[in-house]
Amino acid sequence: MNDHLKGLMITALGVLFIVPDALFVRLIEADALVIAFWRGLFAGLMILGFVTWQIGRGAVPEVLRAGPPAWGYMLLYGMSAPGFVLAVSLTSVANVVFILAAMPVFATIFSRIWLGEPIAPRMVWTMAGVFLGLGVILSGSKEQAGAHWTGDLVALMVAFFFAAALTCVRQVRARSMLPAVPVALIGGAVVILPFVDVLAPFAEFWPLFLGHGFFIAFASGLLVLGPRYLSSAEVALLLLLETTLAPLLVWAVMGEDPGRWTLLGGAIMISALVVSNIVALRRRRVRSGAGG
After folding, report:
1. φ, ψ of residue 252 in degrees (nearest 5)
2. Which of 81, 175, 222, 286 is least buried, going by the fewest C-beta atoms within 10 A?
3. pLDDT score of 32 more than 60
4. Residue % of the chain over a pLDDT of 90
5. What are phi and psi of 57, to 5 degrees?
6. Do residues 136 and 268 touch, judged by C-beta distance below 8 A?
7. Contact indicator for 243, 22 with CB cutoff of 8 Å
């Protein structure tokens, strides 16, 4: 198996493991912050165990010494993880995942502001398509059962936070950020702990809490490893699988209808992102052919 095929398989498997994330939030009948606590704690401990086993006990202290970009990544990732759970509890799953699909666009804007990277012409019309789709989703929330603008706003904030975290990673791209993930997840859980009673629902839902953490931990590890062998455009296309499959899974299991406006807005966004990344892939192959 060559590295490219290996990257495709690892990344696709990571995406499939993150698809049930929102479904777990729907299945667990507990406060959103309680779910976020156990999700972060279990996933963080599992990833920490893997990092310690694979890299050694010095991996986490080393990443803590990596400076402001690493600290920024941990802070932003730590806020986005419970933010996702809160967003799903306040609005429809389809609204959340489609809004989060806008992260590459926000990351492009942040890279321009913070890193001085130019914005490619294709990203200009990609942004136009994504923002048009976002507008359709947000405007249709008032007519859709189970959707609300407050949850949409939280999802938009999560997209901002995670896009900013990805921009921080670009400043330390030579270093693996996997050891930073458990610090962010466990740190977020510790911050939540004083505000809610996390033990009361545990007796009833502990298998779901544990399963939720396992899926997030496994997905996180695969999504750090797989993209090392792929271009950013290929990774972005694979991540759109989660955007498509997550609301369909919740619809099938929980009967949560995404709504026509969300489907329309999501279709506009996904179309813009798919076309943009296919163009990027074709240009990359042309350049590789010319170089060869």
Report:
1. -70, -40
2. 286
3. yes
4. 54
5. -70, -20
6. yes
7. no
* Span between the terminal Cα atoms of the chain, in Å: 22
Q: Please answer whether residues 76 and 161 qualify as being in contact, where contact means their C-beta atoms are separated by less than 8 angstroms.
A: yes
Q: In one letter, which amino acid is 53? A: W
Nearest-angstrom CA–CA distance, 287 and 282: 9
In eight-state DSSP terms, residue 142 is G
State the pLDDT at residue 290.
62
* Residue 251: partners with Cβ closer than 8 Å, 6 or more residues away: 94, 257, 258
Tens of pLDDT, residue by residue over 220-261, are 888 877 777 776 667 777 888 889 999 999 999 999 988 889
Burial 149-167, CB ≥16 within 10 A → b, else e: eebbbbbbbbbbbbbbbbb
Torsion sign over Cα 177, 182, 186, 189: positive
Q: Can you tell me the distance from the alpha carbon of 87 to that of 67, in angstroms, rounded to the nearest whole number?
A: 30
Cα 192 from Cα 42, distance rounded (Å): 14
Mean pLDDT of 10-16: 91
Query: Mean per-residue pLDDT for 274-290?
Result: 80
Q: Which runs of E-coded beta strand occur in 44-97?
A: none
d(CA 84, CA 99): 11
Distance CA 108, CA 123 (A): 8
| pTM, to two decimals | 0.89
Under the banding of pLDDT at 50, 70 and 90, the label for residue 291 is: low
